[in-house]
Design brief:
The complex is a heterodimer of chains A (239) and B (94). By secondary structure, chain A is an alpha/beta fold. Chain A is built from six helices and eleven strands. By secondary structure, chain B is of the alpha+beta class. Chain B has three helices and three strands; from the N terminus they run E-H-E-H-E-H. Chain B has a three-stranded antiparallel sheet, covered by helices on one side. The radius of gyration of chain B is 17 Å and the shape is elongated. Classes of the chains: A alpha/beta (239), B alpha+beta (94). At the A-B interface, loops of A face helix 1 of B.
Chain lengths: 239, 94
């Protein structure tokens, strides 16, 4: 099972994504932004980082890289694609997922262990979760505020395409948690607490937090991230 | 040599954290008459020849496909800018 990981200039988490694929039992394959070949991979990860320095808009220049001219039609044809953080921004800029990402509403970079609720388990990347499961993985971003117009948001919710939501405590529960200013609100101002989305077909998933940093004992807050990668390996087998 | 100036602004319904940061800092310098600030982007696209209608059309197309994201931004202006010689002829320096 060959899972491609794209490296753009400014990608940071491509090596962790490689490692996650390997730990899950797949074979990671390096894909280069300047190549227009996907090297016959069975799925692709667009990793986190700051491609092209996030100049213009996060993901805006990466979206026009040669590798994307091959990836966009392949994704539209059903190839499983996971966009993490900057990868999610690239998927939005490519219009493979609707909406856009802007700067966190509190204007500061954020890096924290983040609770998420898995809301759609029918995608290529989420089928190893139970519906409604709470998972904890790392969130780290500057431009993580998901925005879209109301009609798009209603459509996404109506079609069950919100794959992950930030878990937000009630004010009472949050007041018990000291030193966490994001206990009772989502961590970047994302509309309707959206942390991740899927396309209609369920092969393209994008999310702001980082599953590839939560795959091994001793590193990261949990092993929840590994299930993204084990899920896609199964979905490729069953395809 | 001609230049096309493209101005892009975040849509009014989208929160502008950068503009808010600026708006928050202005009163500290005594500028307390400004009730809101929104920050946009200005692009200057230079061509070797004159800015023809075709050049403007290409700039408009670039503005819509790459320089802006229609989900969050509006292209509020695409216009030819006078080059330096022309602008000096129009407004000679004292």
């Amino acid at each position: 099972m060959r899972i491609g990981v794209v490296t753009f200039p400014g990608s940071l988490d491509d090596h962790d994504a490689h490692r996650a694929v390997r730990v899950a039992g797949g074979e990671p394959v390096s894909l280069w932004h300047g190549d227009d070949s996907l090297r016959d991979v069975d799925a692709v990860v667009l990793p986190g980082g700051f491609s092209y320095g996030d100049y213009l808009r996060a993901g805006a220049i990466a979206r026009f890289a040669p590798v994307m001219t091959a990836l966009i039609p392949a994704a539209q044809g059903g190839l499983p694609v996971l966009g993490i953080c900057n990868g999610f921004q690239i998927l939005c800029e490519s219009h493979l997922l609707p909406g856009a990402m802007i700067q966190n509403d509190h204007r500061t970079f954020i890096c924290r262990e983040q609770r998420l609720r898995v809301e759609n388990v029918a995608t290529a990347w989420t089928s190893d979760f139970e519906k409604g499961a709470e998972i904890t993985i790392v969130l780290k971003n500057q431009d993580g505020q998901y925005v879209a117009d109301r009609r798009t948001l209603d459509e996404l919710e109506g079609e069950g395409r919100v794959a992950f939501r930030y878990v937000v405590d009630t004010p009472e529960a949050a007041s018990a948690v000291k030193y966490d200013r994001f206990a009772s609100r989502n961590p970047n101002g994302s509309y309707r607490d959206i942390a991740g989305l899927t396309n209609e077909r369920g092969n393209v998933v994008g999310l702001m937090p980082h599953p590839e940093h939560a795959i091994e004992e001793g590193y990261g807050p949990s092993l929840d991230g590994l299930k993204f990668f084990t899920a896609v390996l199964k979905s490729v087998v069953n395809r | 040599m001609g230049t096309v100036v493209v101005d892009v602004m975040l849509k009014s319904e989208i929160l502008d954290p950068q503009g808010q940061a600026v708006a928050g800092a202005l009163p500290r310098l005594g500028f307390d008459q400004f009730t809101d600030v929104r920050q946009g982007k200005r692009f200057e696209l230079t061509v070797a020849g004159e800015v023809t209608d075709e050049v403007l059309a290409a700039a408009r197309s670039a503005a819509e496909t790459m320089l802006s994201n229609p989900v969050i931004e509006d292209v509020v202006g695409v216009r030819a800018e006078l080059n330096e010689a022309e602008s000096q002829a129009a407004e000679p320096l004292a």
